[in-house]
């Protein structure tokens, strides 16, 4: 668990054998209500490119929404990923021929992003949502997620986000 996707440094990923980052779009890479992104996202994507780490957006949003959001960043994407199922991850793995041990999924939702990565057998990194508000459909998942968090903290203690892996 890290604070933000931007806290994942290329040298740390490479040291862990990671050659590809699958990343959720809304509230992970960009704020759901700000499709233009931030200078931090551009800098992070540039760092990944320089290190030859592939970045692919895996989003449950529709094609036109994801295409419009990532067009300015020049990254590939899979829309309608159907997380928490593995459809989107499976498409990326087949498209690029990645090995499961060299890929991570980064997302802000335990119930979709992290669950899908575990079902697909790849590593995952949970990040804090970029902003506190969510689209209406995500609010349902957040309600369910709070219940799971409570059970996890009851079992393991306070869960802490870090500044890197």
From TrEMBL:
Source domain of life: Bacteria
Amino-acid biosynthesis listed as a keyword: no
GO molecular function: phosphatidylglycerophosphatase activity
Keyword Protein transport appears in the UniProt entry: no
A Pfam family per the record: HAD_2
This protein's UniProt keywords: Hydrolase
UniProt cross-references to InterPro entries, sorted A to Z: HAD-like_sf, HAD-SF_hydro_IIIA, HAD_2, HAD_sf, PGPP1/Gep4, S-2-haloacid_dehalogenase
PANTHER family with a match to the protein in the record: HYDROLASE, HALOACID DELAHOGENASE-RELATED (PTHR43316)
Protein name, entry field: Uncharacterized protein
Protein's organism: Streptococcus henryi
Organism classification: Bacteria, Bacillati, Bacillota, Bacilli, Lactobacillales
